[in-house]
Specification:
9 helices; alpha/beta; five-stranded mixed sheet; D-Maltodextrin-Binding Protein, domain 2; 3 domains; single chain; about 280 residues; globular
């Protein structure tokens, strides 16, 4: 009887161990399937990032490589003007963009009601006053024709450079969204010519001077030797950034994308491409 009970208990223990083993095996299998599915979803999703054509394409090639090391597929989508990337992001045609500063985005949100937020900073390109005809700001003649970008945020930025150099004075000296209509004093009676940001640098030969965004200055063949003034760096609100839809702000891939940009390898490529005209801003 005792021997039968002993064998019964042994059989019960074996049965329990077998059951536990089955449960554990099932759990491991389920976890494995879940992990595989999660990994598959992450691996299959390609993050489309809107960027501007030109030098930034080289920088983003390095970002793509760094993102791949972190398991994130990134596909740059190239645009040729500033008006398209935010609309494409809002519509869900791309997942992020990287081309703008905060005053520009604020103005875009005000105009179009976009639901776009800052995800992580990239670089800053100090805007400058360029000329092929004069060596200093003081040499600019009376009635000089000076080109400026005509989009709201960059025009105000350009006018602040001219104000800092004493060429003009604005009604509100701190107005980053000023236009030519906001000029209060113009001692040299200069003509402010408002042009598309992509055209103003290329029009330099037809102007006495032009305030040009650094990326467009490079595209127009302008160099630091053509620059007679530059905006201040300290306290500058014009840092560029990676932007995403507000609904994606907390998505795991956003941090991975930002990390893929904010590292020494990409910074080295950034410095190589922009040759000191731009600076990392993170």
């Amino acid at each position: 009887m005792t021997e039968k009970l002993s064998k019964g208990f042994d059989a019960l223990r074996l049965s329990r161990r077998a059951g536990l083993a089955v449960i554990l095996a099932s759990a491991v299998a389920a976890f494995g399937l879940t992990a595989t599915a999660t990994k598959s979803v992450a691996a299959d999703k390609t993050i489309k990032v809107g960027i501007m054509s030109g030098e930034d394409e080289d920088v983003w090639r390095a970002v793509v490589t760094e993102a791949a090391k972190k398991g994130l597929k990134v596909e740059p989508v190239v645009f040729n003007d500033y008006t398209q990337p935010n609309e494409a992001l809002e519509r869900g045609e791309i997942d992020a963009n990287a081309f703008q500063h905060k005053p520009y985005l604020d103005n875009q949100i005000k105009q179009h009601g976009y639901h776009i937020v800052v995800a992580g900073y990239t670089g800053i390109w100090p805007i400058g006053l360029y000329t092929k005809k004069y060596k200093t700001v003081a040499e600019l003649p009376k009635g000089a024709v000076i080109g400026v970008p005509n989009d709201p945020s960059n025009e105000g930025r350009a006018l602040l450079v001219l104000q800092h150099e004493g060429v003009i004075k604005l009604k509100d000296p701190t107005n980053i969204l000023a236009t030519a209509a906001d000029v209060a004093e113009n001692p040299k009676n200069v003509e402010i010519k408002e042009l598309d940001a992509g055209i103003v640098g290329r029009s330099i030969d037809d102007l006495d001077a032009a305030v040009v965004n650094t990326d467009w200055a490079l595209k127009a063949g302008l160099s630091p030797k053509d620059r007679i003034a530059q905006e201040q760096i300290d306290g500058n609100p014009y840092r560029n950034f990676i932007a995403v839809r507000q609904s994606d702000e907390s998505a795991p891939w956003v941090k991975t994308l930002v990390a893929a940009y904010q590292n020494d390898i990409v910074k080295a490529e950034f410095d190589k491409v922009y040759k000191g005209t731009g600076q990392s801003a993170y």
